[in-house]
Amino acid sequence: MKKNLFYKIFFSYLVIICTSFFILDLFLQDEVKDVLTSRIETELLSYAKIIDQTSQEKALEHLNQVAATSKSRITLIDARSKVFADSEKDVTLLENHLNQPEVQEARLKGSGKSVRFSASLGIDMLYVVTAVKDEKALKVT
Predict the structure, then answer these.
(1) FRET pair for 40, CA 20 to 30 Å: which of 12, 13, 15, 133?
(2) Alpha-carbon gap, residue 114 to 26, rounded angstroms
(3) Domain 2-140 falls in which CATH fold?
(4) Strand order in the sheet with 83-86
């Protein structure tokens, strides 16, 4: 009798606890994602400012080093959105970035971001773009 009552109470509490965690997860999931995305954006913009502080020649020299440190891909584009340096791909294989939403936003506001699907990787990626001196733009993904 006592054992049967124990299991009834135990399973009812277990259901209440599991339901509570499920509801908590629903409410907090988007908030955690937003906080982490914001933190990553801030870090990527900091790396962009570091590159902006150097001359174009030094930026090209240290591009791969900064990309490895930030664990991101860095693409340098000119004022016409044509790629002139990239930390992972050959620039001759890359298309013009003019029509990408984060580049358009950076042209208007000085910096831009978007989370969109990457066809080459097959997942959603965060793209952060900032305009830097000498009318070149820095794209960090």
Answers:
(1) 133
(2) 23
(3) Beta-Lactamase (3.30.450)
(4) 83-86, 74-77, 136-140, 123-132, 111-118
DSSP assignment string, 6-65: HHHHHHHHHHHHHHHHHHHHHHHHHHHHHHHHHHHHHHHHHHHHHHHTS-HHHHHHHHHH
Q: Which of 45, 64, 63 is nearest to 54 (CA)?
A: 63
CA distance 6 to 80: 72
Residue extents of the structural domains in the chain: 2-140
pTM: 0.68
- Residue-wise pLDDT tens digits, 33-60: 889 988 988 888 888 777 777 767 777 7
Token digits for 21? 């965690």
What pLDDT, on a 0 to 100 scale, did the predictor assign at position 135? 46
Which residues of the chain, if any, have pLDDT below 70? 1, 55, 120-121, 133-141
